[in-house]
């Protein structure tokens, strides 16, 4: 009668990490090359997004900041100045510290207006921010 078939194999009590390190090193190199090549020569056409972008579901607590072509700023549907916008956002932050905000800017406005609004959101420590764009129709 035969014995245990596993007796003839030698047991290893340690893990050989050299192959795992080789794979990790190669992955690191690949990601470094892909990232640097993707950053160079990027052509941006604002405010359009790729057709594959999915629209995020907007919750009822989401506040929308809209900047029109003539430079007016709306919070949801109310026209506000930057001071009023700051005051209202502080009130919302006091009641719900984690509320999301979406920023919509007309493509004809100065990029500076959008940056001013984003700076205000950063000062108020509002971190859930989305930029709304339109899909490219092909």
Quick take:
The protein has 138 residues and is an alpha/beta fold.
Q: Low-confidence spans: pLDDT under 50, at least 5 residues? A: 39-46, 51-58
Helix/strand-derived category reads alpha/beta
Measured on Cα atoms, how large is the radius of gyration? Answer: 26 Å
Overall CATH class of the largest domain: Alpha Beta
Biggest sheet features: 5 strands, mixed
Number of helices: 3
Strand content: 15-25%
Strand order of the largest sheet: 4-3-2-5-6
And the CATH topology of the largest domain?
Nucleotidyltransferase, domain 5
Give me the CATH architecture of the largest domain, please. Answer: 2-Layer Sandwich
Shape: elongated
Number of domains: 2
- Would you tell me the overall average pLDDT? 76
Written overview of the protein:
The protein is of the alpha/beta class and 138 residues long. The chain has 2 domains: 5-39, no CATH class; 48-135, Nucleotidyltransferase, domain 5, CATH 3.30.420.270. Helices cover 36% and strands 17% of the residues. The chain contains 3 helices and 7 strands. The chain has helices at residues 18-39, 82-95, 111-123, and strands spanning 48-49, 63-67, 73-75, 78-80, 101-105, 129-132, 134-135. The strands form 2 sheets. It has a 5-stranded mixed β-sheet. A hairpin with a 5-residue loop joins β2 (63-67) and β3 (73-75). 5% of the residues are buried. Residues 39-46 and 51-58 have low confidence and may be disordered.
